[in-house]
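Work package 3, deliverable 3.1, input record:
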Amino acid sequence: MNSSAKLFSARDFTCYVLSERALTLDFGTTIHPETSRRITGFYHLLNINPFPGLLSSVPAYTSLTVFYDPVMVLDSLEMKGRTPQERVIRYLESLQTGTLAADPGKATVTGPGTVPEDAGSTESRTVRIPVFYGGEYGPDLGDVASVCGLSPQEVIRIHSGQVYEVSMIGFMPGFTYLSGLPDGLACPRKQIPQQTVPAGSVGIAGAQTGIYSLDTPGGWQIIGRISLKLFDPERMPPVLLKIGDRVRFIDTKPPLNMELPLNTEPPVQMD
Amino acid sequence: MGIKFIKAGILTTIQDRGRWEHLADGVPASGAMDELSARIANIALGNPQNDAVLEFTQANIIFETQADLLLAFSGAGSVRTDTLELPMNTPVFIPSGTSIRILDHGAGCRTYLAVAGGWDVPEVMGSRSTCLIAGFGGFQGRALRTGDILQAHTFISAVSNHFWKQLEGHTIKFPNWSVARQLFLPAGDDFSVRIVKGREQDWFTAASWKRMLNGAYSISKIGNRIGQVLEGPVMERVHRRELVSTAVTAGTLQVTNDGSLILLMSDCQTTGGYPRIAQVAAVDLPLCAQMRPGETISFKEVSAMEAEKLYIYREKELNKLQIAIHEFYRSEL
């Protein structure tokens, strides 16, 4: 985690109202690894410095949306401002500029937007995930190869030769959006969505790559499948990958004539 | 301590005020579609407002009580036994072995049933709401089916206990008061749902926006807990820019690529990539939740500040109601 102060300059984001219970911090309009890092940084900063009434916050490619209970915000003695919206905006701004009033009971901001070093959740990890590319697990590998003017083996080599970063989890529980797809692998969605895309499918849609977490209809080009369960409501935390995690896919040969087992224990390795 | 479903209906689920802690994991908020009615049913019983309730969709339900129960109904529809119509928005004592019918009477879409102590389903990720898309939460992660038995918690609040003692016996009994649910809702057939301009409102032509505010939309048959499809004037784009996926929430009015409107509801996905033309004021979402296919909806613009003011007012009124019921119980001691 880069805790350089300039990541949170006063002009880092603009803020708009999504609903009575949510404000969105807008970090720009283009997908960029640097933008993702700033969003992830602010997400962790907010999580270790929550305000009264904070329900959760949702990081996306270029935004962070903060959900809260307006009544709790209004009842709070520490938050300043007239309306709940005003109070939350002031709080987020003070968090960004590092002027948050010190609260002895809580982790405090030590400088402009720095993340304290003991914040374990901000550790970024590299997760190595075995992928069974092609065949029944990646039915669209051939199509992707021909669209990109590559051989299927080259697609596998390029796709597994890259380090990706989790930029968003959305669409459905655990669905993981990764940034960092090499330009040469960009490929449009399918014309007609597939009825069922199995959980664990690794897909490409435009310039994005991602992993399906549940069996669902979907239009991404499926090039492979992982045997890890990305989402499990019985597990804590329920999702395997977190925002900011780095992901490396490992080309693996599938077991022959076998139903893919869904492992629950991740082969997570820390870098 | 429960009820057995003889006829479970088309979509009967357990809901509370939603699962808000795991939005960042892509887990939808879920929660009661008409949160107002769900909360009123709980308040009327002396329950915490977030207790698990049953949500029935266009109810055609029969269930049987398997124990003496203190229940409260709210929302649309009507409730009866073989011989008696039961009041809504008030505690009703129902002895064991009673068969209850909930009927759709053509107005409104969703009925809510709370039980003193709340329905006994496990809390998953901070909520008892059913997450239909991933199959967890609520009653075994799914809609209730005929033959299912749903249990109530045995621990009930002091207020519920007081109502229980007042009403218990061998027959159905209810007090001579009920919560005036309609007072919380804006009245009149010509009422327009209040909306706030969305972040991408200026991606659409001024003429489109005008058409949307002056026109009427009809609720399509294909709506569900994820969203309502609205049929009516289509929106024209000023440019064909693509939105980078970002958070959406219940009440978000998004515009699909063919210009039609989708109103996101409780089970909506956490992020979306369609431009958001408007956001329905949270206080008017219960009205949207009660709309039936074919009914018309029209819109009126308010500011974000006004919507927030309405929200705070509604919350204060509901809390006053809860306090009034607690005071009422104390005054009877």
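Residues 33-48 of chain A form the longest helix (16 residues).
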